[in-house]
Design brief:
two-stranded antiparallel sheet, 428 residues, mainly alpha
Length: 428
């Protein structure tokens, strides 16, 4: 038995929770071309002759709906509802993929743009609930050391599934993966039907596997404060988050890094200039590199948390993002595609910033603090549009330079203002 907060958690239950987290994330990775809103949505819109600004709109919508999971954290705070909420989020997420597939199959192309906006909105809401619940599960249900090991294994092994899914998507869309694999491509719109439709059974399988989770019992001191929605508790939670200097600083660094990575869509569209070919031709290759590098870097970043300190993983991921954009900016020809790999590895910043914030949080505030962190991403929902506008006016390369400046600010902030190891504050 090991203690987390006031609750003793059997090692066997910690391992079950780690397995649920790992399998859930791995299945999300498997259908990453659809659930990681951005590249695929942007390339489909580009094929419909949409502007760079419109091509970036699905990812912006995905971020704009991020406040909604906070309402769920407020109105249904009980940890005993964690597993049912997670289950329903996965069911609805799968149904959204089925809805999009039906639209591609039977609706005229004039309806595709609204579908490519509605689908990210549903993914944004359900994905926010999913992240909120999964992080509370490993926050409450695991020791910090076990959590660090789980993160290392999850984001070392999980991206392998994304590589497989990305290779499959490339073969489905174009029938050719870097001249190494060749098959007969599936014609449009049936290629989109297959990709979006496959997300439904995968997410429903994840919903079934979630039933293995073991949520530890609630300490008596906490259960007394969770009987219904109390405004004073909501205000206490907000104060706990926004008056905690470590959480606020980490959250600002998180926002800056997240904002910089919103350049991914423009990097995809850059294929028109640097390769002279349609971006859709390389969508699967970009995703395969993106998640292949995640796999390679996942183990190393987990090692940084367990062997060095939590801040090291924040500095490392932000630096890798900078390297990825700089590579795409200065390396010509097909070699520019390796920038997607570097930026993809750096995208693990999301995992390690959340780990830092969870480590600063009391057990009863973990779900709220995760939800608030996802909530504030609404402020960077404008970044894909900003990068699209910069690109339309000054060119894609100018948007790359803008992203680099934002990431350098994040690096400076984290290095100068965050301690190596987070501590739980008495605020709230």
């Amino acid at each position: 038995m090991t203690d987390v907060g006031e609750v003793s958690i059997p090692v066997a239950d910690q391992k079950r929770n780690g397995l649920v987290f790992m399998t859930s994330m791995s299945l999300i990775y498997l259908i990453a071309p659809v659930t990681y809103v951005g590249v695929l949505h942007a390339t489909i819109l580009d094929s419909l002759k949409a502007s760079d600004t419109v091509a970036n709109l699905p990812e912006a919508v995905y971020l704009w709906v991020s406040p909604l999971p906070v309402l769920i954290a407020w109105f249904w705070p009980s940890p005993q509802l964690l597993r049912p909420m997670l289950t329903w989020a996965l069911i609805v997420k799968g149904a959204a993929g089925a809805m999009a597939a039906l639209a591609f199959a039977f609706a005229p192309q004039t309806f595709w743009i609204p579908v490519l906006i509605i689908h990210p909105a549903i993914i944004g809401i359900t994905g926010g609930v999913q992240n909120m619940c999964l992080w509370e599960l490993i926050g409450r249900g695991m020791t910090p050391k076990m959590r660090g090991l789980t993160l290392g294994w999850t984001f070392g092994i999980g991206p392998i599934f994304a590589v497989l899914g990305s290779c499959a998507s490339q073969l489905i869309l174009k029938g050719d993966f870097l001249d190494m694999l060749k098959v007969t491509p599936i014609p449009q719109p049936w290629s989109y039907v297959v990709l979006f439709g496959a997300s439904c059974p995968v997410m429903w399988l994840s919903a079934v596997l979630v039933q293995m989770a073991r949520v530890p019992p609630v300490p008596e001191s906490e259960s007394e404060t969770e009987a219904g929605v109390k405004m004073k508790e909501i205000m206490r939670g907000l104060r706990s988050y926004f008056l905690n200097p470590l959480i606020v600083t980490a959250a600002i660094g998180f926002l800056l890094t997240y904002g910089g990575t919103m350049i991914m869509n423009n990097m995809s569209l850059y294929a028109r200039e640097t390769l002279g070919e349609a971006p859709e031709k390389y969508a699967g290759v970009q995703l395969a590199l993106r998640f292949g590098f995640k796999c390679l870097m996942g183990f190393g970043l987990g090692w940084l948390v367990t062997r060095m300190h939590a801040r090291a993983s924040l500095l490392a991921t932000t630096s890798i993002c900078i390297a990825g954009i700089a590579w795409a900016l200065f390396v010509p020809g097909k070699w520019y595609l390796l920038g997607f790999g570097l930026l993809g590895g750096g995208e693990l910043f999301y995992v390690y910033y959340l780990n830092y914030i969870v480590s600063c949080s009391k057990p009863e505030r973990m779900r709220e603090n995760t939800a608030y962190t996802n909530l504030i991403t609404v402020t960077i929902g404008v970044m894909p549009i900003v990068f699209g506008l910069v690109s339309d006016r000054y060119g894609l390369r100018a948007s790359f330079m803008t992203a680099l400046g934002i990431l350098v600010l994040a690096l400076i902030l984290v290095q100068s203002r965050l301690p190596k190891q987070p501590t739980i504050s008495d605020v709230g």
